[in-house]
Amino acid sequence: MKLEDTCSKKQPKLVAIHKTLEEIVLLNRERISPVTAIIYTDSRVSLDLLRKAKKQSFLVEVIRKQLASLEKREWRIKFSWVNAHPGTLGK
């Protein structure tokens, strides 16, 4: 998948979360127990945007709707931040 050159730095990370949630929806829930998924990301900005109560960008709101839909289907989605650049300050 190629994103437009005009995308912000946070958009590719949010798209990755969105696409991951799309794949989770396709999983056969009956064969997976417990129904918990952990999404690892190196984007603290994305995690912060998803946690904030105030309305955010269209993509953040789409992700929030995906999460709500999965929760209704008894999925537990967790997020975990990982340091993608150990030893590099600011990452």
Low-pLDDT windows of residues: none
Strand content: 5-15%
How many beta-strand elements? 2
Q: Which structural class do the helices and strands define?
A: alpha+beta
Q: Could you tell me the radius of gyration in angstroms?
A: 14 Å
Strand order of the largest sheet: 1-2
Amino- and carboxy-terminal Cα gap: 24 Å
Q: Which geometry do the CA atoms define? A: globular
Describe this structure in words.
The structure is a single chain. Helices cover 43% and strands 13% of the residues. The protein has one domain (11-81). The radius of gyration is 14 Å and the shape is globular. A two-stranded parallel ribbon has the order 1-2. By secondary structure, the protein is α+β, with helices and mostly antiparallel strands. The model has no long low-confidence stretch (mean pLDDT 83). The protein contains three helices and two strands, in the order αβααβ.
